[in-house]
Amino acid sequence: MGLRKTSETEPLHQVIGREFPRDAHGLSAQLRSPDAELRRWAARDLADHPECARVLGVQLQQESDTSVREALFTSLGTIATQDSVTALLPMLRQEDAQLRNRAIEALASMPRAVAPRIEALLHDTDVDVRIFTVNLLGELRHEQVPQWLMQVLAHEKNVNVVASAIDVLAETGQPEHVAALRAVRQRFSHDPFVGFAADMVIARIEAP
Amino acid sequence: MKAAVTPIVITDADFLKFREFFYRKTGIHFEENKRYFVDKRLIDRIEATGAENFRAYFIALRFESDGAELQQLVNTMTVNETYFFREVYQFDCLVKDMLAEVVRHKRRGERIRIWSIPSSTGEEPYSIAIYLLERWPLINDYEVEIMSSDIDTTVLSAAQRGVYSARSIGQLPKPYLDKYFRRLSDNEFAISRDLVAAVDFSRVNLSDANDTRKFRNIDVIFCRNLLIYFDDLSRRLAAEAMYDALSPGGFVCLGHSESMSRISALYTVRRFPDAMVYQKPMQGDRP
Amino acid sequence: MKNILVVDDAATVRMYHRKMLGDAGWRIEEAVNGLEALERVMNQPPEQPFDLYVVDINMPKMDGYTFVRELRRLPQGTQVPVLMVSTEAQPQDAVAAEEAGANCYLIKPAKPQDLVLTAALLLGDGPAARRAADAQLQGVRA
Lengths: 208, 287, 142
Description:
The structure holds 3 protein chains of 3 kinds.
Chain A: E1 2-3, H1 24-30, H2 36-45, H3 53-62, H4 66-79, H5 82-88, H6 97-108, H7 111-122, H8 127-139, H9 145-155, H10 159-172, H11 178-187, H12 192-206
Chain B: H1 12-26, H2 35-48, H3 54-63, H4 68-77, H5 89-103, E1 111-116, H6 123-135, E2 143-150, H7 153-161, E3 163-164, H8 166-169, H9 174-180, E4 181-185, E5 188-191, H10 193-198, E6 199-203, H11 209-212, E7 218-223, H12 232-245, E8 246-254, H13 260-263, E9 268-271, E10 276-279
Parallel strand pairs in B: 1-2, 1-7, 2-6, 7-8
Antiparallel strand pairs in B: 3-5, 4-5, 8-10, 9-10
Helix pairs in contact in B: 2-4
Chain C: E1 3-7, H1 11-23, E2 27-31, H2 34-43, E3 52-56, H3 64-72, E4 82-86, H4 91-100, E5 104-107, H5 112-123, H6 126-138
Parallel strand pairs in C: 1-2, 1-3, 3-4, 4-5
Helix pairs in contact in C: 2-3, 5-6
């Protein structure tokens, strides 16, 4: 025994034929298998079938196995269409922070697809959804991010949504945002944190 | 008349902003004493991308759609040196803790599979081989297969040639050097052909499922200082590929500043006395 | 010198806590989410333990409740005080924090005096607690 010599090694692994056909129909069926491993493989392979984004979304709502959920999120992120976004948005209302944050990551990876939905999300009646949307903006690579943030600074009433927006500006803030930061500082003059954060970001932007 | 070029300077505020962003993206944190190192490389990238100053460079970096500049930045900010017994505490963890758990589920004489990726020029897989032979008491009770892969065929050839510089073998205890290497010249040491024969080298792209499909029932994977160079999606795919490759209960070892938890929720964190590693859950035991 | 680990995904919040708590005389380290924090705790040298954790609830990768539960399973984490700070304002959130293993709960954004006084009490730092209590009574910023 000891170290095996390579001249003796067998072929590494036989790839076994699959039980279900690999087309969208077969994979969708496999997605409902009682076996988590099979569901995970189906979720993985459905990344090649953008027309199945909705099916992936439905499974995501009811899937309890972590490894399958990971595959569902990754595939929706790969597909990156409007249907993917629709499938992922309900996750922003989840109690479970892991699921919510994983959804935000997936959404952040598809800026073109998610952009048309941002306005509505920033006006959602649920404060938490508005906060998570601002968190999403913090990860999003889209030229409109600064404008959306300005909107929040100008009109948002909830201090924690505003605080999140200021936080994103710590990284993305430019000289043209300073006026809005001063204005929001005024608007929330009773809040020591908003004052601190706005001052910090302004100082950062104005630093030589 | 040509305008005078303002030399690019990285201010304290610039450094803080960059540091936060880089840490958020990569998990790598730069202390104050790394200013010189960081500033120099930032200035290089600013000039290389034709940006006017740090501010312009940073905005382009933050909003670029494909992450290409971030990859470049990671490449330049990380030190990619390889040598024998690099991050040796992980090999200690292998022979003391990881293998102890692996053999709990194996009969005597059964195969144990270890996968080292990237192989680079071979220092890592050969280090593992030496460690097993010299520091694992149970080496003769099991059949150990060491596989090692890289995307670059040039380094794979070099690994199979097995000739190393004085710098590369510098960390080896002299008895091991004497036992496993033959000195060819002042700066050339050839590793024993037996060790070369003990490692199964292959060309693999870790993000390509077609390449990794063949790797299964692996007990321990060493994937050190590779994933930091990947973009987010490739990193996730690599984490999944390794998960597929591992037997239930199998381990992954990353570089000391890397975190699998940032990448994927598939693994459980295991803290051993010598190192922190990531484990694929045993059957029916999901994280 | 007491060591505090501040765990929050927002850079401005980490900076705010760092300023308030650092000014009170304690050494501050940061982590951006529960998972990084946990890995930081696991890698912390035994001669330099953390004396207090100030933890946000909503964070990516691992939220505050999960972090505290995991922390309490580590030998170095069973006894260390944890102060949770969050936007959540329902009574059940404070209960959830307690059930996870936290010692105390403050609502964000926390007033500087409240933050420092609570931290000082949890750290057993008498002088700092008295200064913070005075500041609170005077309604002046500590």
